[in-house]
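User: I'm putting together notes for a lab meeting next week and I want to include a structural view of one of the chains we've been expressing. I don't have a solved structure, so I'd like a prediction I can at least talk through. The sequence is below, exactly as it appears in our construct file.
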Amino acid sequence: MTNERHFLSSNSEELIEKIRNHYNSEGTPLSKSQAYKRLDKARIKSHKGNGQCWLDAEQFIALEELDKHIKAGGSMHDFSAIILQERKNIDNQNTEQQSQHREELIAEEIIVLDRKAQEKAAGILIAENLITADYLNNWQLLDEDLRAEVTASKKQSCPKKISPKSFAEAALATVRKRRAA
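Assistant: Thanks for the context. Below is the predicted structure for the 181-residue chain, given as structure tokens.
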């Protein structure tokens, strides 16, 4: 909204006088009651401050629209209905836009949340791979019970001297035993 001031006056009476003269009918100024009715139908209350009285740009446009409506043969009552419908339409549009904006924000937040979750999952998977590789290279660092299992499996499946074929057969037999269990 702009800070334009229309019909700038030193008091309400002077403001009404300026409105009366501006919106004349065939050169004849509006009556005071007609000026007040127009302000009322356009739902306008003047601004006051620093010893001045004025209408802002939006209020001025509303009065201009009302004047055009009347000069085109419309009534003030019709204009009130038009204004109410336009405001209702604007309110509905604003509500729809706010709802859509809210949905867009939520969607953006979900995308960010999903990305953070993916990054955390990737970090955990990478850490698991790195730690697993470290234990494979340093199996003696495993907890005691796990080291015992590794040692037992070596004794079971790997006698001291073994051919590659015998090793593969023993490994396969161990795997089959575990599957059957």
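A couple of points you could mention at the meeting. The two ends are 79 Å apart (CA to CA). The chain has a mean pLDDT of 84.

User: Perfect, that's what I needed.
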